[in-house]
């Protein structure tokens, strides 16, 4: 079992292409080819977490937050980041981070928040743009069905709740090979016309290598004519935050008590009560003030997130109830999500949930 085996499985639910541009995800310390002795899953990779990994013979730490975020110019051990990284390197411990790749997953951080709140009819709050690509290729008519099926098997043609989606146009292609060519149909040096099918399919960007691999392997021509472009379409099942509904509407005060107990927080900072019951709820793990307007636009009765600043509570404007449960508290179930996902795949392998409290905030 190598680090690559573990991370490939994580990336089935949180492909690195899902991450935001500002983020630092993936393998931060270590080598993908290293054989794994054990995996420790944590929210944050602190020095004490590295110690825990050492004690439990785990040479891979899977962390939600990246310990290296803005880059390191020195490794002198002068701060908590440098000390954790130095200790990991000295003890041959790899560190892998998922962060916004898992934030944007439809089974990730926000989905887990919905699950613990028992929200129903969930959907993505802010669908992600720029994660869908389109492939167009040209293939002899007789080979079109086989190639199309292989592209579907590689993950192309999935759109929302539909699969095997493609657009096909029949026409006549032409080509002439030079003296170095070896044409599948026709002869070198002679102009050839061939009945062809133009196949167009869309796919998620992280599948590009796999899909192009199938294209080159299964396409009959010596030279494959194709183009790949990135679309600006929103991907409805990938993005920040989620929104769902309670089975029955509840009173605002009852809602806030439920939120406090569910997220095990010392306090819930909230906006002014507006005198209406809560049924439709938006959630977003971590710092989520940027999505307040999205929650209002989706007509949510309440929005649960973290790190709201003083003036951001004014944005509620008697239209929504804002609930700040704390950054750690909103993401605390993430490590359980990762452990559950890994243990289902690697049933006879040591996957440990970190016992260290990494929340830097305390309440009195």
Q: Can you walk me through this structure?
A:
With 364 residues, this protein is an alpha/beta fold. The chain has three domains: 3-98 and 333-353, NIF3 (NGG1p interacting factor 3)-like (Udp-n-acetylmuramoylalanyl-d-glutamate--2,6- Diaminopimelate Ligase, Chain: A, domain 1); 109-128 and 238-325, Udp-n-acetylmuramoylalanyl-d-glutamate--2,6- Diaminopimelate Ligase, Chain: A, domain 1 (3-Layer(aba) Sandwich); 131-231, Alpha-Beta Plaits. Helices cover 27% and strands 29% of the residues. It has eleven helices and 15 strands. It has helices at 3-13, 47-55, 80-90, 100-103, 109-117, 144-153, 208-218, 252-262, 292-297, 327-331, 334-345, and strands at 26-29, 39-42, 60-63, 94-97, 120-129, 132-140, 167-175, 192-204, 226-231, 234-250, 269-270, 278-287, 302-306, 321-324, 351-353. It has a six-stranded mixed beta sheet with strand order 5-10-12-13-14-11. β3 (60-63), α3 and β4 (94-97) form a beta-alpha-beta unit. α6 (144-153) packs antiparallel against α7 (208-218). It starts with a helix and ends in an 11-residue tail after the last strand. The mean pLDDT is 96.
Anisotropy-based shape? globular
Average pLDDT for all residues: 96
CATH class identity of the largest domain: Alpha Beta
**N-to-C series of helices and strands:** HEEHEHEHHEEHEEHEEHEEHEEHHE
Helical coverage, percent range: 25-40%
What is the fold's blueprint, element by element?
Elements: H1 3-13, E1 26-29, E2 39-42, H2 47-55, E3 60-63, H3 80-90, E4 94-97, H4 100-103, H5 109-117, E5 120-129, E6 132-140, H6 144-153, E7 167-175, E8 192-204, H7 208-218, E9 226-231, E10 234-250, H8 252-262, E11 269-270, E12 278-287, H9 292-297, E13 302-306, E14 321-324, H10 327-331, H11 334-345, E15 351-353
Parallel strand pairs: 2-3, 2-15, 3-4, 12-13, 13-14
Antiparallel strand pairs: 1-4, 5-10, 6-8, 6-9, 7-8, 10-12, 11-14
Helix pairs in contact: 2-3, 6-7
């Amino acid at each position: 079992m190598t680090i690559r085996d573990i991370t490939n499985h994580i990336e089935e639910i949180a492909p690195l292409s899902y991450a935001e541009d500002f983020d630092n995800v993936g393998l931060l310390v270590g080598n993908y080819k290293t054989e794994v002795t054990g995996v420790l899953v944590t929210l944050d990779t602190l020095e004490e977490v590295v110690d825990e990994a050492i004690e439990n013979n785990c040479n891979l730490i899977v962390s939600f937050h990246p310990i290296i975020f803005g880059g390191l110019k020195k490794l002198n051990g002068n701060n908590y980041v440098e000390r954790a990284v130095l200790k990991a390197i000295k003890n041959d411990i790899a560190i892998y981070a998922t962060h916004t790749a898992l934030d944007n997953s439809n089974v990730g951080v926000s989905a887990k928040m919905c699950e613990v709140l028992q929200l129903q009819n969930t959907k993505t709050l802010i669908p992600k743009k720029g994660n869908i690509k389109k492939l167009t290729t040209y293939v002899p008519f007789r080979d079109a069905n086989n190639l199309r099926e292989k592209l579907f098997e590689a993950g192309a043609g999935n759109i929302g709740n539909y699969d095997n989606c493609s657009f096909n146009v029949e026409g006549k292609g032409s080509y002439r090979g030079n003296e170095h060519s070896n044409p599948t149909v026709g002869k070198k040096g002679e102009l050839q016309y061939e009945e062809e099918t133009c196949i167009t399919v869309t796919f998620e960007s992280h599948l590009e290598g796999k899909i192009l691999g199938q294209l080159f392997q299964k396409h009959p021509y010596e030279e494959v004519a194709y183009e790949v472009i990135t679309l600006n379409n929103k991907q409805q099942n990938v993005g920040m935050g989620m929104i769902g509904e309670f089975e029955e509407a509840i009173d605002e005060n009852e809602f806030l008590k439920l939120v406090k107990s569910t997220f095990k927080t010392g306090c819930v900072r909230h906006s002014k009560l507006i005198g209406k019951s809560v049924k439709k709820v938006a959630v977003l793990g971590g710092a989520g003030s940027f999505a307040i307007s999205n929650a209002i636009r989706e007509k949510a009765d309440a929005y649960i997130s973290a790190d709201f600043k003083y003036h951001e509570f004014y944005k509620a404007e008697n239209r929504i109830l804002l609930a700040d449960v704390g950054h750690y508290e909103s993401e605390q179930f993430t490590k359980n999500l990762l452990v559950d996902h890994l243990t289902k795949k690697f049933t006879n392998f040591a996957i440990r949930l970190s016992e260290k409290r990494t929340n830097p905030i305390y309440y009195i």
